[in-house]
Amino acid sequence: MYLSIDGIQKSFIGENKQPVTVLDNINIEIDKGSFVSIVGPSGCGKSTLLYIIAGLEKADQGSIRISGKVVKNPGPDRVVVFQEAGLFPWLTVLENVTYGLLIKKIPKKKAEAKAIDILKMVHLSNYINSYPHQLSGGMKQRVSIARALVMEPDILLMDEPFSALDEQTRMVLHKELMDIWKKTKVTIFFVTHNIREAVLLSETVIVFATRPGKIKEVIVVPTTGDGITTDSVTLHTEQRILAILEEEIEKVLKEEMGDDYSFKTNHLHRNDSGDLGSHI
Amino acid sequence: MIAAIWEVTSRFSGLPEFMFPRLTQVLETLFNGIVHGQITAAIGKSMSRLLIGFSIAIILGLIMGYLIWRFKFVEDTLGFLVTALQSIPSIVWFPLAIVWFGLNDFSILFIVTIGATWTMTISATSGFRNVPTLYQRVAKTFGSTGLHFIRTVILPASVPQLLSGLRIAWAFSWRALMAGELLGSGGGLGQLLETGRSLGQMDLVVSVMIIIAVIGTIMDNVVFVRLERSVQRKWGLV
């Protein structure tokens, strides 16, 4: 296996000084070049898992291995695309994208040429000398994806990268991400709370249970031979995941709103939680 | 308008010239002082002291700010001390400085430095502390560590706060410099004020005051405001 997540255990100190387990014995094996999504209710520790893979946080127990090598610190082989673009406002778009390359000691000229190539791929070659504040939210996120891709990482870790964007921009970026993935065959580990997004993009969807966060179910998204998922299959998979998650969502809501609240009987999601795919 | 009132009142006030000089006389002294080099030399002397003291203060402030930000035990010890020290006007250090270094250039340099250091330390600490975690995480995933991390992320990300710290630090050390020169020795604008007083040359005193005001205004309104604006424009904060 390429990326192995082995018995990861993680807890935080909660409000009343009690340790709260966020991740409980997580084991995942991921093939090279695959696209794996993690969905789950908020607070289920999915982002924490991503940070542990990135090396930004330490697990209490267990290990992350890439091709057999144990991960300890952050490194340019596993680049993260965060929820917010996180571009450095004091650098231009081009300087932002070359930032990591220059750390890798790639000559400036070569780094810039590479950066411009990647920026073309995300359709931003007209903005290379702009500063981040001059870009829209979608453009910023594109730069941040370009900045990650230019490193030619083995694994691209994406932490709800599109959740702060509007629907149109998100759709465009979904398509661009798919193109990029097919072109570069980078391994993508994608964290989201949007079930539809997970089903549309990835080959495998891992559904997380909450408190403590653990794997509830692993769903392989069925694709036809050419790699395209038909709408009916997508819908079906979405509903399956939603059914699995319902129980988890109820758990979270009960904790937040009190025990008498029931998500299932109230059917709130029929009306207003389009994010969960129920409006189709 | 002010100039006219000044000129007229000083002519008819009946006060002797050494107490309330005429504007024209002040301008004449100012002009002569600049041309003959008396005032220019003093400006040069003061500015060179300020530059040295201020630079040392910036470096010290950044280093201490970094240590306080980085290590918890330094924050608990030095961090507390700095807040206390900051409330001491720097001229208060002068008697000690005279005992330690003698009544010389070094004493003045010492209080100029000490006047700016604490403020700089405090604004550096808060500047570093307010660097968004996101930027730090981004830099780390790209493999930035150690000095490179400080130089390319922590420092630039705290520039807006550092700039306002610089501005206050400058104001403190400028005041400290004048006070120090007035009491100390070895030339400079403050010393020139003292000379003017002892010779009964109020026109010289007023000339020096004008120079002090002009330099202060230039530094504040031209240098710092411009710097702040250019950062704001680049970052899109306006």
Short note summarizing the structure:
Chain A: This is NitT/TauT family transport system ATP-binding protein. The complex is a heterodimer of chains A (280) and B (238). Chain A has helices spanning 46-54, 93-103, 108-121, 137-149, 167-184, 195-201, 231-257, 263-266, 269-272, and strands at 3-13, 19-30, 35-39, 61-66, 69-70, 78-81, 155-159, 187-192, 204-209, 214-220.
Write up what this structure looks like:
- The complex is a heterodimer of chains A (280) and B (238).
- Chain A has 280 residues and is α/β, with parallel strands linked by helices.
- Chain A has helices spanning 46-54, 93-103, 108-121, 137-149, 167-184, 195-201, 231-257, 263-266, 269-272; strands at residues 3-13, 19-30, 35-39, 61-66, 69-70, 78-81, 155-159, 187-192, 204-209, 214-220.
- Chain A has a domain at 3-67 and 179-276: P-loop containing nucleotide triphosphate hydrolases (Rossmann fold, 3-Layer(aba) Sandwich).
- Chain A has nine helices and ten strands.
- In chain A, helix 2 (93-103) crosses helix 3 (108-121).
- In chain A, 40% of the residues are buried.
- Chain B is mainly α and 238 residues long.
- Classes of the chains: A alpha/beta (280), B mainly alpha (238).
- The A-B interface holds A 51, 54-56, 74-76, 78-80, 82, 84, 86, 88-90, 99-100, 103-104, 131-134, 151 and B 132, 134-135, 137-144, 148, 152-153, 156-157, 159, 234-237.
What labels describe this entry?
heterodimer; A: 280 residues; alpha/beta; Rossmann fold; 4-stranded antiparallel sheet; 9 helices; 10 strands; globular; B: 238 residues; mainly alpha; MetI-like fold; 11 helices; elongated; ATP binding (chain A)
Give the number of DSSP strands of chain A.
10
| N→C terminal distance of chain B | 36 Å
The CATH architecture term of the domain at 3-67 and 179-276 in chain A is 3-Layer(aba) Sandwich
> Strand tally of chain B, please?
0
Relevant CATH superfamily of chain B: MetI-like
